[in-house]
Design a protein that fits this description.
Layout lengths: L53 H11 L12 H4 L46 H10 L8 H10 L3 H8 L6 H13 L7 H6 L7 H11 L31 E2 L14 H4 L8 E2 L21 H10 L9 H4 L18 H12 L4 H5 L13
Antiparallel strand pairs: 1-2
The structure holds heme C (2 copies).
The site of one heme C has 26 residues, from α2, α3 and α6.
Subcellular location: Periplasm
Cofactor: heme
GO molecular function, one term: heme binding
Length: 372
């Protein structure tokens, strides 16, 4: 087995005069993660019992691409989370080893250190838990853990577990921890938008207008806006981290055909149809879109927000109150964007593509040149 040398990615950026903070994960650790200061702190979301170490990251990377973790050795995590698609799979919903499709679209694995609830309806509390669930899940990798562990032992993984966790005893928990370490290191912070924030890239007029529109809450007659940044917050473009505040009903369905979403986790009817607000980083690479992959293109997504909102009892207030024109109360919310404004928002979304992230050799398949 090849051993992968991880040399730390070092980015030190200063944004609007703030000092870079949260630079290092563990002072006496060999694995260092540095991120732009405008990403905010992250140390508090690394569990004390699972700091990221170079050996843990390397093991996690191998397990992520390890087909032996599936029932018929045909599928790894990377089958549905492919690096060149920003760790998605290009499908509306993702079929597992038995060809049975789940109800959800694969999610990009990016900047997970700035999230607290995982999966579309928020049912997973930690990356560790969400990392072993697909292995067992009958519509995903459909493997039994005793078999998986035996196959890893046959491959000689004991040594790697020894190096990463100081024990040769392979357990489900340690598999989850190693996978989580690898995934927490999947940080995308070198898109054109980041380069612009660091003063290294001059945006086109359309990109600049798109950024403005994206982050502006409209006030009819005074301020034009696309309202996106109300939910896709700040440079991370993901939802709020606290509790379930980052879960919203963005008007995909009316009450009759709406899926449970967060209600499945909380049991609260007010949470019906609320889903996790995903990060839009690398969004141009992760089609199709939404929890069920219903939109093929970003143009369709923008049309949805502009003029395709479905009314329902749990439709988010930020959508109801976000219009460029005065609408009568109870009227179906619309944004009333011009064609130029839609193009501008699209240009901004394309700025979020990070070529370095999707080609970074440290995140790629250690076993072959294949992507998965
Ligand atoms: C058959 C396709 C498939 C496979 C294989 C698969 N996943 Fe996923 N992954 C998905 C889908 C679909 C979702 C969304 C699930 C949901 O919302 O319930 C997801 C969600 C996730 C998330 C949550 C991301 C977030 O931002 O909330 C993580 C983490 C994850 N997968 C990690 C893994 C790991 C680790 C493996 C390998 C052990 C793996 N996945 C294997 C399809 C897959
Ligand atoms: C009320 C909060 C809210 C607002 C406002 C909002 N979004 Fe979203 N967005 C979400 C949520 C929640 C999802 C996931 C919904 C789902 O799949 O059920 C989402 C999904 C998306 C997706 C698909 C992501 C993926 O991985 O499939 C894109 C693209 C997107 N939004 C772009 C935008 C743009 C552009 C705007 C502004 C025009 C915007 N959003 C405004 C909450 C919001």
């Amino acid at each position: 087995m090849r051993s992968i040398l991880f040399s730390a990615i070092l980015f030190l950026f200063v944004f609007e005069g703030c000092e870079p903070k949260g630079k290092e994960i563990e002072p006496d650790n060999d694995f260092e993660i540095s991120v732009p200061s405008y990403f905010g702190s992250f140390n508090e979301r690394i569990p004390e019992n699972n700091p990221i170490t170079t050996k843990g990251f390397e093991l996690g990377r191998m397990l992520f691409y390890e087909k032996k973790l599936s029932g018929d050795n045909s599928m790894s995590c990377a089958s549905c989370h492919q690096q060149n698609k920003a760790f998605t799979d290009g499908k509306a919903v993702s079929p597992g080893i038995d060809g049975i499709s789940g109800e959800f679209s694969s999610m990009s694995l990016v900047n997970l250190l700035w999230a607290e609830h995982f999966t579309w309806n928020g049912k997973m509390e930690s990356v560790e838990v969400q990392s072993t669930e697909p292995i067992r899940n009958p519509i995903e990798m459909h493997e039994n853990f005793d078999d998986a562990i035996r196959e890893l032992e046959e491959e000689g993984y004991q040594r790697l577990f020894q190096e990463a966790f100081e024990t040769e005893v392979i357990t489900e928990e340690l598999i989850g921890r190693a996978l989580a370490q690898f995934q927490r290191a999947l940080i995308s912070s070198n898109s054109k938008y980041d380069q612009y924030l660091r003063g290294e890239y001059e945006p086109t007029p359309s990109e600049r207008r798109g950024e403005q529109l994206f982050f502006t809450h409209p006030i009819p007659g005074q301020l034009r806006g696309g309202n996106c940044g109300d939910c896709h917050l700040g440079p991370l473009t993901s939802g709020a981290i606290d509790e379930f505040q980052g879960f919203h009903n963005n008007g995909l369905d009316n009450d009759e055909n709406m899926k449970d979403g967060l209600m499945r986790v909380t049991g609260n009817p007010a949470d019906k149809g609320r889903f996790k607000t995903p990060s839009l980083r690398n969004i141009a690479l992760t089609a199709p879109y939404m929890h069920d992959g219903r939109f093929e293109t970003l143009e369709e997504v923008i049309e949805h927000y502009d003029n395709g909102i479905h009314q329902s009892s749990t439709l988010d207030i930020l959508i109801i109150e976000g219009s460029n024109e005065n609408q009568a109360s109870g009227e179906r919310p619309e944004l009333f964007l011009t064609d130029q404004e839609k193009d501008d928002i699209l240009a901004f979304l394309h700025m979020l593509t990070d070529e370095e992230f999707i080609t970074n050799p440290q995140f790629s398949n250690p076993f072959s040149d294949e992507n998965f």
